[in-house]
Amino acid sequence: MIRPSGRQPDQLRPVTITRQYTCHAEGSVLVEFGNTKVICNASVEKGVPRFLRGEGKGWLTAEYGMLPRSTGSRMGREAARGKQGGRTVEIQRLIGRSLRAAVDLSKLGEYTVYVDCDVIQADGGTRTASITGACVAIADAFKKMQADGLVKDNPMKEMIASVSVGIYQGVPVLDLDYPEDSNAETDMNVIMTENGGFVEVQGTAEGETFSRQELNSMLELAEKGIAELSEMQKAALAG
Amino acid sequence: MIRPSGRQPDQLRPVTITRQYTCHAEGSVLVEFGNTKVICNASVEKGVPRFLRGEGKGWLTAEYGMLPRSTGSRMGREAARGKQGGRTVEIQRLIGRSLRAAVDLSKLGEYTVYVDCDVIQADGGTRTASITGACVAIADAFKKMQADGLVKDNPMKEMIASVSVGIYQGVPVLDLDYPEDSNAETDMNVIMTENGGFVEVQGTAEGETFSRQELNSMLELAEKGIAELSEMQKAALAG
Amino acid sequence: MIRPSGRQPDQLRPVTITRQYTCHAEGSVLVEFGNTKVICNASVEKGVPRFLRGEGKGWLTAEYGMLPRSTGSRMGREAARGKQGGRTVEIQRLIGRSLRAAVDLSKLGEYTVYVDCDVIQADGGTRTASITGACVAIADAFKKMQADGLVKDNPMKEMIASVSVGIYQGVPVLDLDYPEDSNAETDMNVIMTENGGFVEVQGTAEGETFSRQELNSMLELAEKGIAELSEMQKAALAG
Amino acid sequence: MIRPSGRQPDQLRPVTITRQYTCHAEGSVLVEFGNTKVICNASVEKGVPRFLRGEGKGWLTAEYGMLPRSTGSRMGREAARGKQGGRTVEIQRLIGRSLRAAVDLSKLGEYTVYVDCDVIQADGGTRTASITGACVAIADAFKKMQADGLVKDNPMKEMIASVSVGIYQGVPVLDLDYPEDSNAETDMNVIMTENGGFVEVQGTAEGETFSRQELNSMLELAEKGIAELSEMQKAALAG
Amino acid sequence: MIRPSGRQPDQLRPVTITRQYTCHAEGSVLVEFGNTKVICNASVEKGVPRFLRGEGKGWLTAEYGMLPRSTGSRMGREAARGKQGGRTVEIQRLIGRSLRAAVDLSKLGEYTVYVDCDVIQADGGTRTASITGACVAIADAFKKMQADGLVKDNPMKEMIASVSVGIYQGVPVLDLDYPEDSNAETDMNVIMTENGGFVEVQGTAEGETFSRQELNSMLELAEKGIAELSEMQKAALAG
Amino acid sequence: MIRPSGRQPDQLRPVTITRQYTCHAEGSVLVEFGNTKVICNASVEKGVPRFLRGEGKGWLTAEYGMLPRSTGSRMGREAARGKQGGRTVEIQRLIGRSLRAAVDLSKLGEYTVYVDCDVIQADGGTRTASITGACVAIADAFKKMQADGLVKDNPMKEMIASVSVGIYQGVPVLDLDYPEDSNAETDMNVIMTENGGFVEVQGTAEGETFSRQELNSMLELAEKGIAELSEMQKAALAG
């Protein structure tokens, strides 16, 4: 089996994490997993949703979108159609839920962090790139909040990162690009902390079912990939 | 640790599967996982969505809803609010995707099966009960299609069933009810075929992350529970 | 003329009223008029709509829905289409308006009663069954409010019930089922109190117009049917 | 009892019916019932809704709207709020259903008549004025269709007209204006043909229930009023 | 070049401005530019939008609509389609923005003026007629506010009026009607104050581009036409 | 008067036009007017809207959006709110209308060009940057269409470009950035062809009205600025 990109089965695509990508957001990251490019902006606003008011805790929520022509053929603009599609809803709920697992909301005070992940070019793995980039963006936003005296302690508990794994032509592979993703037998998105705890595991059989052993192989690849991504996040934040 | 219901950690709630529950649908099942009660109707219609036309294959799609007072406090009616919530969208996509894995769409001909899962009473695990009951409903619909000469071979590849597992007060438990679900550290929904293949695994850390070992314990509980549910499905279909 | 069901012209279908049908709602009734089956849940919430705030009065409002496959062929789900259809709106306004006529809102305090009528199986007369069942559900909810000390006096002024009448093949008939309803020359829904006062009368010529005399005949049938339904409501509440 | 307007209990408001009110519609009428003013436009378009295609029959449908400041205080514009309110939906369904009873759709050919009733000033009775005026507008549209050779025979079976009746301060009154309507114990809208057949009867108890005898008194007033309105329609069409 | 209407290139259509056209609004004008007829209602309500609260200033906003059959062929009703079209949005933003330029909002107190421009018959130039008529309606509303003691000084700074100009068959013309508008090479809407200041200029090349010289010719026609319209507004307000 | 940026009154911001910015679209441009950055993608699809079918002509339409945090404070995502705001609608209509003026649709064949202008960072002038960048993107798309044999002749008639001008602190200035735009007395957007023809002129008085002489000064600045932008477009396309 040769991957369309020529990569080894356990090899990530080239990853870049560019901070301060746009000038207005408290944290702004362009994350690239190969040809997949996502702008991750973290915005801090005073106040929390109604269900949290008066509890002294903060909130974090995420929204996800794709530029209409981020993909091979143009998709209708969700704003023009008047609703977000099911896939969008599913992804933005995943991003928000995962990032909240990285944050100690009780240290955030009554602030809400809005994370916007907007895909400008898609080649598979947009949700895992989004989570990996967005975690750096919120790290920057938290630093700014500390510098501005809005919070005392850094609300980040542990950094998280995410990668996809799958079974492609019978072989477990790491970080699927679009040609692999659209032909994989099984596709799994894994989100872990920098210390190796699992935050979310979502595996789906696309055609054939998968076995316990295949699941294990995929989890091992994911652990390896996320460890590498965590190092890149650290390097980016140190840069 | 004592479960709120007094069950053993590896014990399912009482499960009942009532076929022919309503009179119009080609397959109609009331499934009960303890106090969780879901009507699963399978409707067969001629024709397929545009993207499949002319391919000689069928389609299956699912919709999910909760009666406004299926829950402890009343939720706004989605039809009145003018949109389905994110959780609803996520669940109905999961139900549809899983059931399609159970079906050989090429044997279905140009028919669409609409699966409607409507929760009339909720006590945790509505999505796993929905999938387990809906698979019986589509089995009935397929039998009717064969009897009516609409399809030649049964389009069902393998029956599927689903159960939730989680870590509750540090202990892996099977088939969480609402009091457990709302306090679990980790919650995982597993969907498998009657022959033990994995169709979907979705595990989420609610508070603390989970370890590889905890993941393994949960998967083992799920395998046990789904084997039992598969037997109940068979018994119901034989009844 | 022989009715499709073999009933006498002035004969109701078998009616059952099952209380405590689901476990969460303050009042929960499954009402069956023959094959028409409707879940009627009454939910009590603190607070009133803005236009009533500070007046010390309560409010009651109703919503109506049909499961997509409650009917012979599947109807699109209103939540998925993003709006309630005209028929739905018309029916839920009728249910709410009628039930408010049964209630002394000034005795309710600043509470809102939400009535949800969800049709799980339809065979004609869903709106009249809904009103008849929902009145029992709110009676239960009011009892619970009294028991919980939320209201002092029972806010129910008089029980109401409802039935349809029509001209079928030239003959006035009581409680039309679907085969009659879809072929009736005239269809009338009547809502009355247990003491014989009229709450609402809605008669519509479907094909030919109707005469004053036919109107009178239909009203007499309705008076008879509603008297019987009132007795069944009393029996159910006494049960 | 003295009516706010000083009218006799069985006296209509001054009614005017102005044809050719706007220049584009096939039939265009301004109808005035006292201070209630409604523009009724009938538009003829080739084609019928999907459910009627190929049957050689026509269709008629109605839409209703109120200018935001047709009323004492401004109502939000339905187009801006993104949906028609329940009252609007209920009224336009009534208008369409009633007018279809006046028309032999099989003589209309595969044309659709759109009736638009837009209230420019409201003082009670907008739905009855709309129906009365719209019937004249469709009569004009049918004449034009005959003149243009689109239909051979006039599709109008019988003209219809409509009026409201009610119990105001204990007295049955004809054609309620807004001060009466907002204080009536019972309000009933009656639609009849020029030959005295009933098309629709909708009576609602607003506070107290009404008796069979009060119902009869109201129906008699309605018969008298509609006979007068029918004469005015004839005079307008002859003018 | 002969204009379809036979007018001179610099000649307005017959213009009428009827005040107190409907009875409820604080200012109500029917404005006619030839066959274009628009009802302009100004409604005064206590309170301002959130972004202005507590600043002691008022607000003015406008909405625009067309009756479905105000045009040669029927347009779908925006309320029924569930959204306002792009053209509607563009026009109502223009009307509101222009009228705000006529008003000293700081003299208005915390009141909002809603301007509703509803086209009952269209023959080109509906937006310019709307602005010209609406300015008279708000003048009446301001007089009423002064009379009622709601404001001390008249909030009107300067009256504004509006007219369209264009290049039709190579010739600059004033106040285009529909036959001209739909064939013009260039179409420009100009809004000016009674004292000759420009409020808004919107010129669009429909087919060929226009030159600086053509732009100048059109502006001169507009200045002439608006001067005449300003006189008619004054006469109407003096009447 | 010193401009916040220190620029001369007739000086553009630094402008860059980056082609092939994303990899999927037929034409893809990142345009920067200072800190304003817009991705302009041109997508070519077979087929035309219904109103053009069978005429052998093509169509071009545009959509506009801003990333939620492209601005100083986060704006709600239009896709999540379920509708495009009035400003968005106004701008995308302007972009589409202007670009159609640049194109000979009869040379395009039955293809539709979708132009997507997505603002990733905003600092004033997003609509003028969008038009200027999008014209380069469609030029690239047309070249690709010619290379692929989809069209024979280049459908571009003349390139167009756009710039804003205004009166800032009494002085006419070119290409307003956000600090100027939000304080300008008058703001005007001008769109011209590379040969100096006017395509659209939209001038709005924000506070005080503007005079004919001020209008002339602004037009002269615009002519100068657009001539420079046209040169940059040519250079980019030659690059």
UniProtKB/TrEMBL annotation, chains A, B, C, D, E, F:
Reaction equations catalysed: tRNA(n+1) + phosphate = tRNA(n) + a ribonucleoside 5'-diphosphate
GO molecular function terms noted in the UniProt entry = tRNA nucleotidyltransferase activity
User: What's the top EC group for this one?
Assistant: transferase
The record's EC number reads: 2.7.7.56
Amino-acid positions noted as binding phosphate in the UniProt annotation, renumbered to this chain: R87, G125, T126, R127
Q: Which UniProt key words apply to this protein?
A: Nucleotidyltransferase, RNA-binding, rRNA processing, Transferase, tRNA processing, tRNA-binding
Report domain Exoribonuclease phosphorolytic positions.
11-141, 159-225
Q: According to its UniProt record, which protein family does this protein belong to?
A: Belongs to the RNase PH family.
Job of this protein: Phosphorolytic 3'-5' exoribonuclease that plays an important role in tRNA 3'-end maturation. Removes nucleotide residues following the 3'-CCA terminus of tRNAs; can also add nucleotides to the ends of RNA molecules by using nucleoside diphosphates as substrates, but this may not be physiologically important. Probably plays a role in initiation of 16S rRNA degradation (leading to ribosome degradation) during starvation.
Q: What does the record note on quaternary structure? A: Homohexameric ring arranged as a trimer of dimers.
> What PANTHER family has UniProt attached to this entry?
EXOSOME COMPLEX COMPONENT, EXOSOME COMPLEX COMPONENT RRP41
Q: What is this protein identified as? A: Ribonuclease PH
